[in-house]
Design a protein that fits this description.
Elements lengths: L1 H19 L20 H5 L1 H6 L1 H24 L1 H8 L7 E10 L5 E8 L8 E10 L2 E9 L7 E17 L15 E19 L2 E16 L7 E2 L30 E13 L10 E13 L6 E16 L3 E14 L11 E3 L13 E3 L1 E14 L2 E13 L12 E11 L4 E10 L3 E9 L3
Parallel strand pairs: 6-8
Antiparallel strand pairs: 1-2, 1-19, 2-3, 3-4, 4-5, 5-6, 6-7, 7-9, 9-10, 10-11, 11-12, 12-15, 13-14, 15-16, 16-17, 17-18, 18-19
Amino acid sequence: MHRVSVTVILLLIACLAHAEGPPPDPSRGESYDGATHTASATEDLLWVPRVLLAPVRFLFRAIAVPVHHLLDWDEVNHVHETVFAGFTSRDGTIGVRPSFQYSVSFVPVIGLRFFDGKLLGHDTNFSVTAMTGGIHIFYGELDLRPTPTDRALEATVRAVYNMRDDQVFTGIGYTTDSETLNPPSRYAIDSFDADGRLTWLATRGVTFDVDTILGVRRFGNGRQIGDEKPIEEVYCIRSLTGLCIPGTIDPVRVPGFLRGTQFFRAAADVRFDSRDNWYRPSSGALIELGLDWTHGLGDDDSQYLRLHGGLSAVLDLWKRSRTLVVRFEFNDLQPIGYAPVPFSELIVLGGPDTFRGFRPGRFRDFSSAFAGLEYRWPIWMWMDATVFGEYGGVFGPAFQGFSIERMKPDVGAGVRLRSSDTFYARAQVAYGWGDGWQAFFSVNTGF
């Protein structure tokens, strides 16, 4: 009887082992609890963007292949680590890093950034950046943060000097759409800003900022780039015969150009941030509201208020790796009194951060509205890609003249090479309706 019982038990174990079959396959909806889960409605809907974005994804994968090999080679040979180690202290708090920025139709700039995380105390920051693109182009920046990052109240001081002769001016307002009335031109700028800021983390996700800024701007004739002439040949005061009077600029079309501007600015803003990660969010939202008041100094009698608002919502489409970002921004500048607001202080749309299908300075007026939709996904361990579409425009004070017809769209794509908490390089290409293709490249190692 004992032998029969043992035999029956062994047969049952063998049957159960045979019944188990192969392990569950998650790609077919099988889970380890033994149940089979069918695809949800959300997963079914994802097939639409997957099909539409398939060509772009294949393109990015093709681009990623040589980059993968290069980075794999670097990982094996530790080239960048060896180079950085030669310019960095052992604890990583003091060092030098390269910087590079380039936008199509602008002069590229290259330089270095020095940082010291101990000079002002433990977990503080002292950094100096210097970049140049020739004898007429220089950018210098000094950043000081004497307070540690774990403090609820943080203080920062920043000074920036910028000298360039390749800046774009295409008129003010809706007439910027007409190259006949306002053809693009180039001007030079010589500016300095000194900024002191206090940041208070009131509670988790709620932050207040208070800024005081002293600014100085001086302007001059720019260089000719392509078909775009220096500003004195385009926005000059003309004689009765229609010819430019040499050395003049029309003060109505380009207010504040001849004398420049110097001003004091006080600003305050509040941020409500529920994103799960400020650096690479996969869900949550950011709401920003800000107000600043500016008063001219010396012979600049201008005075104006600027209101800013923004909303960014991040939707997790799949396992925190594929996200959809929705952005809305608006700005409104209200003059106080009758003195004209200098053209350089008006609201500007265009550039690598907003309205990427258009050059920096392309649209300029007293108010702006902007909306963007962006899809992000990883293409390698240290690299992610994005495709985006944007829609925006500029208008008069208090959005006078607002209409959908006065807004323009753009579409584009980009890649970012990053570590866990720093972007090392960024490349973006975008097409703006009416302006053609734009491309932006930057390397900010260690920022």
